[in-house]
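During the reporting period the student researcher (J.K.) took over the structure-prediction task from the postdoctoral fellow and processed the backlog of single-chain submissions. One of the processed entries is reproduced below for the supervisory committee.
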Amino acid sequence: MSMPAAARVLSADWAARGTRRYGDPDLFFPITSSGPALLQIAQAKAVCARCPVRIDCLGYALETGQDAGVWGGTTAEERREIRPPAHPMSSAASRGQDEFPA
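J.K. obtained the following structure tokens:
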């Protein structure tokens, strides 16, 4: 059974069980997403594929808006594609605007 997303964010102890902790942390943060970095990304994803906390890692990255690196076997670009869009009501409220125009 998977932990609820909010609990994952608050309790990142899953990271201590991750396969990533045994390797080079730079592997998961390529400088670019093209050229030679594609091999680095593939290597990071291979580590993620055998990691017991891959789903928790991906959930954490999505919940906290991680916009760099390989998390849970996904690149920043891939996470942007699967991240749900912000709720229109909350974005208006965050800009200090009324939710409904007068």
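The committee noted the following: Residues 37-49 form the longest helix (13 residues).
J.K. will present the remaining backlog at the next meeting.
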